[in-house]
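Let us work through a complete example step by step.
Step 1: write down the sequence.
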Amino acid sequence: NFKKDAKASTVDTTYEETLPVMESVARMYAEEFAESMNESVDLTVCKTTPIYDTKDCVVGYSVAFSKDNKDYGYVNVDYTSEGLVADFSVTDKSDSIYDALTENFAESNAEVEVEDCEDKLISVNGMDYAVEASDSEDNDIFFYNGTTYESADFEEMLDHYEENYLSYYDNTEYEDEFVDIDADSLEEREWEI
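Step 2: predict the structure and record it as tokens.
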């Protein structure tokens, strides 16, 4: 018997309240993923950087690792990606993607210091990332694919990309299959949130 005045329960959690949980889950998932790549290496998470989509919403986290206090790559966990891991490089030859991009930005633009960069990555297409800083006049500038963009130019580039290339990159017919790990195949773990 269904009551007309029955209401579905609602969750009283805000977007901002879920971010620490999302970050914690991303950290743990990235650790498990990295350990599955090389079980003999003892890695430590040294930093998490939020990944934003082009609409300025957090969609995941870039989790950077170290071994013996030296950079040891990263795993980008993207909650909008089917396999959760959008990008990774877990080797002693890899820096965090955020550190690499901010250092390249500072080297290519005299107005930018690494410390000036926002603590975030911007996912352009799920595989490519941009970083953001403010110039000397406090205007937002972006670094993507080796080029510095002013805000309006960056938006125009994103619009052009979306109109012309998004369907090309969404073609899964040629998707790489060199790593096929999903959440179920990772070792079960007690998740502490």
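Step 3: interpret the result. The chain has a mean pLDDT of 82.
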